[in-house]
Design brief:
This protein is α+β, with helices and mostly antiparallel strands and 279 residues long. The protein is built from eight helices and 17 strands. The protein is globular and about 55 Å long. The mean pLDDT is 97. It binds zinc ion.
């Protein structure tokens, strides 16, 4: 098994939205806000090569929305999706599987891109897309609260691709890659846990997007069910602490990976660094 990580792009969102009920006086000590109160986030994606498969986790924003939409996302830095793949030694046609953690725009938009002659084309011509059935049905129905994140132009192409595989429950995608379902952020958020040489790596996605979101009450205002997020974090963090798992962050622009440690205040990030520092 080979594991690679790269950052597709940084983007900025409102710092208050990233930390929900936590006062700015506290969260601004962890992540610096600019004059518009936005904070910097990464879009770190994971590639797992195993058993002849190349599995990508999430695909970033893509390019299907207009200039005004992307102006508000303040995209900057990172290596891009195809550039990042190339940096890890892969072409888009090498990707056999894409795990879509959920269908919010910053996670799924990069799988289908504007085609030169109009319409859309798949970036990964041979990939199967794995999405939880609950998330797929929920996003297709959409709702007022998530309307700005569930964009039909991002979601429809998966259904029309003939390459959609709906995941029903916690299960193994292939030996060493387990898919786990969560419900606090959005129904059926699906996060992979990788078994790499006897060490488990949990890709935290939007369950706890940065190291600052490890404390149980530090959660995004985007979460639909905060009490469920708290319970899910408690279970995953406790299991990870006791079994020495590593955490990989999708949105932390500084820390790619960390171990956990127990403190009088609860579970917190221990050693932080690049994944290569740990393996
Ligand atoms: Zn999300």
């Amino acid at each position: 098994m080979k594991i690679s990580l790269f950052n597709i792009s940084n983007f900025r969102v409102d710092g208050g939205a990233m930390f929900g009920v936590i006062p700015k006086a506290l969260w601004s000590r962890q992540i610096m806000a600019d004059e518009n109160n936005t904070v910097d986030l990464s879009l770190t994606t994971l590639i797992v090569e195993t058993g002849g498969r190349v599995i990508l986790v999430d695909a970033g924003w893509g390019d299907k929305q207009d200039e005004k939409f992307f102006r508000h996302a303040y995209l900057h830095g990172g290596s891009g999706l195809t550039g990042g793949l190339a940096g890890c030694g892969y072409r888009p046609e090498d990707v056999t599987d894409v795990i879509i953690t959920h269908l919010h725009a910053d996670h799924c938009g990069g799988c289908f891109l504007n085609a030169p002659g109009g319409g859309q084309a798949p970036l990964f011509p041979d990939a199967t897309y794995h999405i939880s059935r609950e998330q797929w049905e929920w996003a297709n129905e959409s709702n007022l609260r998530e309307e700005d994140a569930f964009l039909p132009e991002n979601i429809k192409p998966f259904g029309e691709s003939g390459m959609l595989n709906l995941i029903e429950e916690n299960s193994e995608l292939c030996p060493g890659v387990t898919l786990k379902l969560f419900y606090g952020h959005t129904p059926g958020l699906m996060l992979p846990e990788i078994d790499f040489n006897g060490k488990k790596l949990f890709y935290a996605g939007d369950l706890f997007p940065t190291t600052a979101h490890i404390p149980l009450l530090w959660n995004m205002a985007y979460d639909l069910l905060p009490l469920v997020t708290i319970a899910e974090k408690q279970e995953i963090l406790t299991e990870a602490l006791h079994n020495d798992h590593l955490i990989i962050f999708q949105h932390d622009p500084v820390t790619e990976c960390c171990a956990l440690t127990e403190t009088p205040k609860g579970i917190r990030a221990g050693k932080k660094g690049k994944l290569s520092d740990f393996l």
